[in-house]
């Protein structure tokens, strides 16, 4: 590709993606609301911009073959907080792509789009939307937006329903873990697969206890290698007996499912220092 755009480039997950994406294109345009990024790569340009600013997003997207859209406010929060970056921002990306002939958008969706489904359902990629808060609702909105732009305008979209891309520190993550290496592999396959149309795929590693079914997205060629079972014995022993009536334990959304709408849920994920910051 000649030009690839990465939003959320200063975030946690975006930071892991910059170098691999730079190898897939002549020019990588990284953008975020942050002042800057660490050590731009030789073929990387950084643009500070607000997702909610359409003119800024249009300028960034112009001439791009594809957009990897990882920018967002990453937590449950009041609707007014999420409206600009997570709702309007998604519209701005897709509309800018339409105006400038961008071929495909790879979107960092989330398990929180279906977070209120019980984990015992072993849901597939066709599971009905059941958001666990405004954050999950924004993911539902963007998935539907992406489908509409595919159906009406022919813009391909791969929506990555990421479960938990962070170090394994809690019982939920034994099933939901997406390692950083597998995350990079997932994004690479979402970019280089010849035909994607509108696709949904769960971002999860090859965990023995993965609670979702990715068989309907095998056409993307994603074959994860890492497995969180290596952490299970220690994590389960430290956690003790879990309350089966707590939605945070039995729903896919974890703490987001049990946290009141509009209130931060990130603290309940018990992330370690290596996983702090937005992704």
From TrEMBL:
Origin: domain of life: Bacteria
Record key words, sorted: NAD, Oxidoreductase
Every NAD-dependent epimerase/dehydratase domain range: 5-162
Coiled coil spans: none
Database matches in InterPro entries: Epimerase_deHydtase (IPR001509), NAD(P)-bd_dom_sf (IPR036291)
GO MF annotations in UniProt: oxidoreductase activity
Family: Belongs to the NAD(P)-dependent epimerase/dehydratase family.
Protein name (record): 3-beta hydroxysteroid dehydrogenase
């Amino acid at each position: 590709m000649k030009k690839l755009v990465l939003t959320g480039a200063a975030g946690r997950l975006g930071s892991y993606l910059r170098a691999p994406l730079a190898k897939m294109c002549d020019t990588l345009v990284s953008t975020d609301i942050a002042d800057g990024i660490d050590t731009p790569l030789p073929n990387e340009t950084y643009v500070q911009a607000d997702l909610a600013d359409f003119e800024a997003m249009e300028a960034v997207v112009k001439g791009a073959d594809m957009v990897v859209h990882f920018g967002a406010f990453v937590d449950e929060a009041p609707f007014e907080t999420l409206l600009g970056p997570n709702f309007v921002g998604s519209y701005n990306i897709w509309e800018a792509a339409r105006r400038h002939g961008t071929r495909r958008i790879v979107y960092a969706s989330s398990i929180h789009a279906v977070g209120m489904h019980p984990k015992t359902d072993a849901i597939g990629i066709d599971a009905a939307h059941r958001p666990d808060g405004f954050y999950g609702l924004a993911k539902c909105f963007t998935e539907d937006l992406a489908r509409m732009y595919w159906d009406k305008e022919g813009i391909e979209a791969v929506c990555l329903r990421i479960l938990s891309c962070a170090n394994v520190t809690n019982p939920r993550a034994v099933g939901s873990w997406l390692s950083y290496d597998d995350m990079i592999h997932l994004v690479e396959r979402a970019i280089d697969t010849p035909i994607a149309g509108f696709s949904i795929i769960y971002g999860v590693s090859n965990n023995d206890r993965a609670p979702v079914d990715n068989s309907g997205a095998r056409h993307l060629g994603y074959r994860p290698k890492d497995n969180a079972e290596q952490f299970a014995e220690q994590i389960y022993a430290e956690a003790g007996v879990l309350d089966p009536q707590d939605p945070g334990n039995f729903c896919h959304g974890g703490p987001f499912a049990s946290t009141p709408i509009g209130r931060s849920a990130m603290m309940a994920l018990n992330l370690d220092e290596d996983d702090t910051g937005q992704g």
